Amino acid sequence: MKNKSYFDESMDADELEEMMHQMTKMYKELQKAREMHNNVLKDLDTKVVAMENVIQETARKAANDMMVSFRDRTTHEIKVTVEKSLHDSCVELREVSKNAKFVTEIQDKEISFLSKCIIGTAIFFSICGGLLGGLTVHHFIPEVTPELEHKLKEAALIENIWPKLSKKEQDRMMEMVSQKKANTKNSSNK
Length: 190
Fold this sequence. Notes:
single chain; 82% helix; 0% strand; rod-shaped
């Protein structure tokens, strides 16, 4: 085919038809490329959301297990710190997810090295957030001394036998605890 302008009047019908055929073919290829791009974008979004859910679920399970084992010593401040750490990790992950989505919109056919770095950064920040939360919780949980361990064992024993006691025995035991607290308070004031 000769190199002619689209507006050249000397083009014959066959040449115009060939040009139209080529343009239609290019348009279809562009549509396929766009569809592939959208599929990659959807796949990446699904993976990022799934990864965020797994990270959140893992962090929630870890926090829940820790609170159960130390429920008598856990304070409201620890819970707020852990939730803030999880929230910050989720916010960072959402930011990384938005950045990853922006990068994939620019690309036509494949995920670039930059996208892989962003996902790696998201994982890195999630791990850092988990470590920060764990260290914060570790900092606020008191050291288990032999005296505290003894008191926890006594509390567990009482918790196991409490439902088996009659109302009268429960009242008597509560009265003994109140007297012991009063005696301890009076001895500490002297």
